[in-house]
Amino acid sequence: MRNVLLRLVFVVALPALLVALWWVASDDSTDVYWPPLRTILSAFPDVWTADRLRGDVWPSLWRLASGYALAAVVGVALGTVIGSYRRVRAVCEPVLEFLRAVPPPVLVPVIMLFAGIGDTMKIVVIAAGCVWPVLLNTVEGVRAVDQVMTETARSYGIAGPARLRALVLPSASPQIFAGLRQALSIGIILMVISEMFAASNGLGFTVVQFQRSFAIPDMWTGILLLGLLGFVLSVLFRLVERRVLGWYHGSRAASRRS
Asked: What does CATH list as the number for 52-245?
């Protein structure tokens, strides 16, 4: 119980300190672009009503989830194939290094030409940015599978889907989850950017509309909401990771104790 309380204090201490500093630093502000924090917080419940949450936050979350899921499936599948075969990796690596260097926001106008301006475009933009950390971490995770275990599986006749399910994916899963964690933050950024182009709803669209109409406190509430959304998604991801990789964290804790 004591450890839980200490961990909670460590988690809450820095955000509470930053909020307090923001409150004090902005309390006497008369700058229209830098309103006091109390003004922003008082505007929050008036701006983010239930109707606006349904009309703007839910579509954003649905696009993020769709693009993220698509990137996860494609990244893990391609990464497993590329990491498993040396010749495939040698052929694909130059192309992958070229494509990963292209910033996904630059592709928005190109994707709009093929996917239109609806939800499909936004999902593709999110997937195009999220796929790279998942793909590259999966490749490295598959390449790092223990050779002794690989030879043992081969000697017992474990091959094909059984080998993939029992050896390759479990061994690579820590690396895969590291890529998924990186992809989540990238997905939130691309969700906002994609909604700034030819959109009629979403968090990115709403924040830009507040900025264009000089509703500055309302704009700041949208930024705060995005930060809270990123924090909540990070916590949920960590809980899922702890659940799925319980064996991995347990083995690391045991090795540290020994």
From this structure: 1.10.3720.10
